[in-house]
Amino acid sequence: MTRNVDESTIVAGRLVREGQPAKPRLSRKHREWIAAALFLLPDALGLFVFLGIPMVLSLSMGFFDVSGFGQYTWVGLRNYREMFNDQLFLQSLKASAIYVVVLVPAIYCVGLGLALLVKQRIPFVGIFRGMFFLPYVISLVVIGLVWQFMLVDQLGVVNQLLANVGITGKSWLGDPKFALGTVLFVSVWFLMGYYMIIFLAGLQEIPREFYEAARLDGANSFQTFWGITIPLLKPTSFFVLLISTVTAVAGSQGFDLVYIMTKGGPANSTSLVVFYVYQQAFQYSHYGYAAAMASFLVVTLLILTTLLFIGTKGGRFDFD
Amino acid sequence: MDREDGRGFPLGQVISHGFLILVALLWLFPFVWMISTALKPNADVFAMPPRVIPTDIQWGNFKAAWNYAPFGRFMLNGLLVAGIGTFLVLLTSSCAAYAFARLDFPGRDNIFVAYLGTLMVPQEVIVVPMFILMKNLGWINSYQALILPWAFTAFGTFLLRQFFLTIPFELEDAALLDGASRFRILWNIMVPLATPALAVLGVFTFINYWNSFLWPLIIVNGQEHATVPLGLNIFMGQYGSQWNYLMAASTISILPSVLLVLATQRYLVEGIALTGLGGH
Description:
The complex is a heterodimer of chains A (about 325) and B (about 280). With about 325 residues, chain A is mainly α. Chain A has two domains: about 1-50, no CATH class; about 80-310, MetI-like (MetI-like fold, Orthogonal Bundle), CATH 1.10.3720. In chain A, about 70% of the residues lie in helices and about 0% in strands. Chain A has a two-stranded antiparallel ribbon with strand order 1-2. In chain A, helix 13 (about 275-285) packs antiparallel against helix 14 (about 285-310). Chain B is built from 13 helices and no strands. In chain B, helix 3 crosses helix 7. At the A-B interface, helix 2, helix 5, helix 6, helix 7 and helix 8 of A face helix 1, helix 3, helix 4, helix 5 and helix 7 of B.
């Protein structure tokens, strides 16, 4: 209150209102609280309704049998027990595990490789960056369609071009041996532009003096890469590993590409967990069961990211 | 030792430049092939050997694809959903970001941490309860169901807060002393200064809405409310063997996002680098 009075004397007093009695008003502090509440309200309310409620619903629905007409029957842990006796779920868990284990390192290596390529100061490098980034802004439905078309058995352009160099065409999407690998390949192609830019930003923050000093000491480019680039890229690496793990487990590319290109087949080899959850919920109306699997996915994600934090000694990623 | 930044003419640089061009061409080949196929008659789609430049160019494919399915409707739906959604995200995020960046209130930092926590929840894991919620609200097959669930983001708030923190206090203090309201300050001082950040957030939000597939697939039946990816999926179900029309439709459907990105490319690269924005 005192602060407020002082201020008004300074501000207004000097102009005209010297003798006017101060009206009883809210203190500056309280007015700020009200302003903050009003500013926060729309976003916070929206998040509560469209994120908070679904989260709580998601975690609790797993303990119910939910019919298509919205009737809830308490079933305790039955959905969770069923999950681990469901061969199709176990198969999707396996597919997802392979997908994550391959995708995360692949993103790291290809992303960093591309970033090193487009870091050079050469003419038109901006255009190259744009070209690599392009797939990332295209609808995954289009990307799935185009690749499916290029990979058509025998007649597709990929197999025709391979035939030109003497490689017999494969059924890239129809053979259980290759299908998941194909989905992985397209996922990398789609995602890579984003990680390239993240790595590029990290690389550009490394002071040039370090490289010059290394060169004067006679270090070759291999030594420079392992001795300077990789250690100084740690914060970027942590960020990339974190985001790519979340993306690999539950990113939209997993569902969209599988839905368009393989529908989970052949022989369920590409049925990622996100796709199986969709099938159970929206093709068989097993909402409770699907929610249980989604909860399982959230917990897995939580564990993976926690491990990542511990494994990298605390993820010194600065939020400010 | 004259390898500094392309002065001189070292062989190593020619090789790496050549390699870059090769990789970039392979990288873009799917798009080249898409457009090439969109211009071919159906009989030539799988012609051997494959030809990148069609011999018999069929501009009519675009018109045919457009007329086979109500693509105008899909595009309009997409623009409406993405446009309103983006507007809402920008509005709610900048208000919340202003509160976190500039106002003092009890529990601010704890609330902000809780906000950041929600960033770790991917859309894919909450679509089941979200669908149930929409069902209870009676919003199945509606625009609000396509727009509202994703119009409130902690991400936009986080991004804009970081940006607002870099804007100096002086301008604002002067305005406050002149008796300007907080909302005026946000609108007249912060928003104009934060245009690059708002542009990046806006472009990515628009593209996310425009490309979103899983949610429209769940919440929309039929063509009336279908957005473009859903429309393509419907189209594929009906004319799956007409690859030239499918590719023509695909080419049309990516135009808005490609144009938007080209127009704002400069901001985007900077913005992503600055914030890690746009992770799927």
